[in-house]
Design a protein that fits this description.
Blueprint: H1 10-44, E1 47-48, E2 56-57, H2 61-68, H3 70-101, H4 108-120, H5 123-133, H6 140-147, H7 162-187, H8 191-199, H9 204-215, H10 217-232, H11 236-241, H12 253-263, H13 267-297
Helix pairs in contact: 1-13, 2-13, 3-7, 3-10, 4-7, 10-13, 12-13
């Protein structure tokens, strides 16, 4: 029966059943591989468990231990430095690429595909290539530096250069993703705005500042939020390039969680660290939404 006491439309009920049928695989996968592990990790964060002995209830001890753990604060700082190093630079370079590839130039489709190729390339394969490029003895980067008279840089073996090396590689790999999103935003800007500005005598910089950037506010906000969330979850580059070294100089939150959970088998502590990471990302995202709300949604 409907809300007005009339019999429900049989065709509508059939469509709902078919919709549920086609949605069922995704819903089951979400429940089994996302929601259930998340809820389980929350429960594990309140116990001590090494995968061998039965879990022992610990209350909030894991969280207190994390907040008193100097290594927790160090890897959190490394993660923040990584985010500050990758997000702004990747956004600026992605926008510059999108502006260049939004022009009517010959072979623009080929260039777009080439710049997007690193995004679809497997992370491990890309990282192994960069590991060879960074090699202190026979890497291509140090070879190029030697050609211009600069000394070799211990990219992956120096506490000073390890994290910047990961940042450089990550920015290179993420350029294509931001470029595609910015391209979509640029192609959605009405051409008549630029024509009117040109008639009024606005130069290229003025058109970019007063038309392109404001019209890309929502796109920029989306890229920034997703990039920040992704940067806080960095793992593959760290695992393959540096293993968190040297001397934990490049260790990040997710890698530290991996070390505690799957190397030291402190599953309760690792789960608590995961939820602290979630809290940090959640708070930072709320701050971003609050700071950008007026500019993005009411501009």
């Amino acid at each position: 029966m409907t809300a007005y006491g009339q019999p429900a439309n049989p065709m509508l009920r059939s469509e709902r059943r078919w919709a549920l049928f086609f949605l069922a695989p995704s819903l089951i996968g979400f429940l089994a591989f996302t929601l259930l592990p998340v809820v389980t990790s929350l429960g594990l964060s309140f116990v001590k468990w090494n995968l061998i002995r039965p879990p022992e209830f610990a209350g909030v001890d894991n969280y207190v231990r994390a907040l008193r753990d100097p290594m927790f604060w160090r890897v959190l700082k490394n993660t923040a430095v990584y985010a500050l190093g990758t997000v702004p630079s990747a956004m600026v370079l992605s926008l510059a690429l999108a502006l260049a590839l939004n022009q009517k130039i010959r072979g623009v489709t080929l260039f777009r595909g080439l710049y997007y190729l690193p995004v679809v390339a497997p992370m491990v394969a890309v990282t192994m290539v960069w590991r060879w490029l960074y090699n202190a003895n026979f890497g291509v980067i140090n070879y190029v530096l030697s050609l211009v008279g600069l000394p070799a840089v211990p990219w992956l073996t120096s506490t000073r250069w390890a994290l910047p090396s990961v940042i450089i590689m990550s920015v290179w790999k993420s350029l294509g993703s931001g470029m595609v999103i910015y391209l979509a935003g640029l192609q959605g800007i009405p051409q008549h705005l630029y024509d009117a500005a040109a008639v009024d005598g606005a130069n290229a910089w003025q058109r970019f500042r007063h038309i392109t950037l404001p019209m890309l506010a929502t796109t920029t906000f989306f890229v920034m939020v997703t990039s920040v969330i992704s940067s806080f979850q960095v793992f593959g580059q760290i695992f393959v390039l540096t293993r968190g070294g040297p001397a934990n100089a490049s260790s990040t939150m997710v890698y530290y969680i991996y070390q505690n959970g799957f190397q030291s088998f402190r599953m309760g502590y690792a789960s608590a660290l995961s939820w602290l990471l979630f809290a940090a990302v959640f708070v930072f995202t709320l701050i971003q939404f609050g700071a950008q709300r007026e500019r993005v949604f009411y501009e």
